[in-house]
Amino acid sequence: MEDSGVRSQVAGRLQDDHLLAGFVPPFRRLAGPGEADLGRSFDQFGQVASRSDLTARVVFRVAGNAGTAVRAWSLELTPGAYQVSTEAVHRPDLEVLVSEATWRQLAEGSLSPLLAFATGELRVRGDIRLAGRLARLMHGE
Questions:
Q1: What is the pTM of this model?
Q2: Are 119 and 13 in contact (CB under 8 A)?
């Protein structure tokens, strides 16, 4: 969905939903524009999230561009600590499904997770409240 007016309408309708409100603002910058190493953005994500009291297991499944394979990054969080790996953990609390292009926009802070979710560019499975808490952490609440 490229039209910013349509994206604004979608965001306006959804931001009042208490479960989705944490997805409204874009993330703080986790990666620079065009950064080649996606893993670094997940490390930055873990650093920010570990400052909370969360204990969780999150898997990010990132579909490559032009038909390349899906890659996974797992984030294991405990208060004050985190671990990122390139192996999908079994039975995560939350699974995030996204394309590489969309993840890059999220990590660069140029796309709101709410808009990505509302337009089907980002999907989540599992604990939606955890997803909201993580999103709020990523934009600084």
A1: 0.80
A2: no
